[in-house]
Protein: Arabinose operon regulatory protein
Amino acid sequence: MAETQNDPLLPGYSFNAHLVAGLTPIEANGYLDFFVDRPLGMKGFILNLTIRGEGVVKNQGQEFVCRPGDMLLFPPGEVHHYGRHPEAKEWYHQWVYFRPRAYWHEWLNWPTIFAHTGFYRPDDAHQLQCSTLFQEIINAAQGPGRYAELLAINLLEQLLLRRVEAINESMKAPLDNRVRDACQYISDHLADSHFDISSVAQHVCLSPSRLSHLFRQQLGVSVLSWREDQRISQAKLLLSTTRMPIASVGRNVGFEDQLYFSRVFKKCTGASPSEFRAGCE
Structure:
């Protein structure tokens, strides 16, 4: 199959934009009936919505079958290995490739099916709303005019917010406001190299032991583990979407020592910061 730089549905297309969106209509034995294979992922995010048929996503020996209504989020650097399910006649899926705005970070932290591939399936009350917004994003992105991309980005922001809103509505036990405030405080102080739980606890008017208990009870991880995840996630975002020097990326997420930052980053991701950045290009 000849590569092209003009068709985003075929290998070789350069996603050199803040947002590109479309529909991939895969039918058995059709010209699009092949597996996408990007072992190093991409430097932006891809959001994928199955609308017909079934697809299969593979990652290091694991598989997930996508069915109509399933939404998958592939962050920068995540393995892309997916195609039509061999037992399905077709797999029609809509997609949006995008570089996020900085303040979207929290909205892009989705539950995963494996590795870092996020998953969300709207309930019946929100399915139509999400599918309509997804189509509007595609229409805007492919439309004429100098503001087409900006309009599509704003519609994508709506979609991400609708998901957050739907999840909050469905939570049986809302997150304790003190835990939520602690998360926000930690996120706002990722650059602090001298971090201690007592400062967070004081901010939310709890003892360190009580905060630690609430945090683990509601989020399933310790305060330090949650902060580490946020630091690495933010570092990956900066490495994949900016040309900021690696030492500056490390300082931005609280690592004064670049060598130590590189060791921690590699332990968490399997690649050094420079290797990760190279794989996103």
About this structure: The chain is about 40% helix and 20% strand. The two ends are 23 Å apart (CA to CA). The longest helix spans residues 148-170.
